[in-house]
Design brief:
Helices cover 59% and strands 0% of the residues. It has helices at residues 3-9, 13-17, 21-46, 54-65, 74-77, 80-86, 89-94, 131-140, 145-148, 151-170, 175-200, 226-238, 258-270, 273-282, 292-318. The model is unreliable at 1-46 (pLDDT under 50).
Length: 321
């Protein structure tokens, strides 16, 4: 008897479980839940098909890392290349969402960490202390976190992790432990950078994230390729680090209270939404765009993202004492 034939003749765990009435009902409920999620997947993933390209994220991460003050730890300042590489990382995870043969838990269902539609946020909801309280405020107003987005809370969570990492590093009992903590810090800081870079693009702060929707008195484009043309195609073909690195604020600023500073950054980005759409109306963003205003706008947004990212890293370090 071969191993394969032996396995065929043995009842599987699932087969045995289905003979127990209580477990059978659990499996049926689970199957219905999976089917429901599968049906919702196209709508959930539709929002996730556009993002800053690899180039834009990498450049923002690099620009932030190159403006770190000398007061930050040497291991962190020397990790500029790694911090730049890690900035696009959350989008790399999403590139494999189509493959559910092994597991589909990531899928497209955590993509709402990459945006927040400020028009849909109830008054004062973004003052909530944490993600759960924010979600409760949204549901009380008839909204859903997966519709509105939770980008600010992803940033706050990762900043808390980074601050804790710096504190552990300060008090590490030996060099080996300190080295392990350094790896954790760099990874968390790099991943944090992704969401700050996302927020630099006004598209990540609005319901108009890929073409104008609803009432449109100014006749802005409704083209569903705009987001990708701007932050991927245009940035890849028109932008270099040298185009905006000099615009990054030269000295770091403490962002305290962090939540207030983060909301101000989101409002600042959102405030550039109509300017972005006006530029698109003058000349569509893409490989062939020639407008000087388009490049100036993009450089300003990338520099703002790099400045805020550097400041958050700095704030996490200083407040970790």
């Amino acid at each position: 008897m071969t191993w394969s034939s032996l396995k065929v003749r043995q009842p599987t765990i699932l087969q045995r479980a289905l003979t127990v009435p209580r477990l059978r009902s659990v499996f049926i409920l689970l199957a219905l839940t999976v089917a429901t999620l599968a049906g919702a997947a196209p709508a959930a993933q539709a929002r996730l098909t556009v993002r800053w390209g690899e180039e834009g994220h990498t450049m923002i991460g690099r620009a932030a890392a190159e403006r770190l003050p000398a007061s930050m730890p040497a291991f962190f300042r020397e990790a500029a290349a790694q911090l730049a590489y890690l900035n696009p990382e959350p989008d790399r995870w999403r590139q494999f969402r189509e493959d559910t043969t092994l597991a589909g838990a990531m899928g497209g269902y955590y993509g709402y960490e990459h945006y927040v539609d400020l028009e849909l946020v109830p008054p004062n909801a973004l003052r909530a202390r944490d993600r759960n309280a924010f979600a409760n405020a949204l549901r009380a107003a008839g909204q859903s976190p997966s519709t509105v987005g939770v980008l600010p809370y992803r940033v706050l969570e990762l900043t808390d992790r980074l601050r804790r990492g710096f504190s552990l590093w300060r008090h590490a009992p030996d060099d080996a432990t300190r080295g392990y903590i350094e790896q954790r810090i760099i990874n968390d800081a790099g991943i944090l950078g992704h969401y700050i870079a996302d927020a630099a693009n006004p598209h990540h702060t609005t319901i108009h994230h890929n073409g104008w929707v609803g009432v449109n008195p100014k006749g802005f484009t409704t083209d569903r390729t705009m987001h990708g043309r701007f932050e991927s195609e245009y940035v890849r073909t028109h932008m270099a680090l040298s185009d905006f690195a000099g615009m990054v604020t030269p000295a770091p600023h403490m962002l305290v209270p962090l939540q207030d500073s983060l909301l101000a950054y989101l409002d600042r980005s959102h405030g550039q939404l109509e300017r972005l759409y006006s530029l698109e109306k003058e000349e569509p963003f893409g490989k062939a765009t020639t407008g000087a205003g388009h490049k100036q706008f993009t450089a300003e947004r990338m520099a703002d993202g790099a400045s805020v990212l550097r400041d958050i890293w700095f704030t996490a370090w200083v407040t970790s004492r």
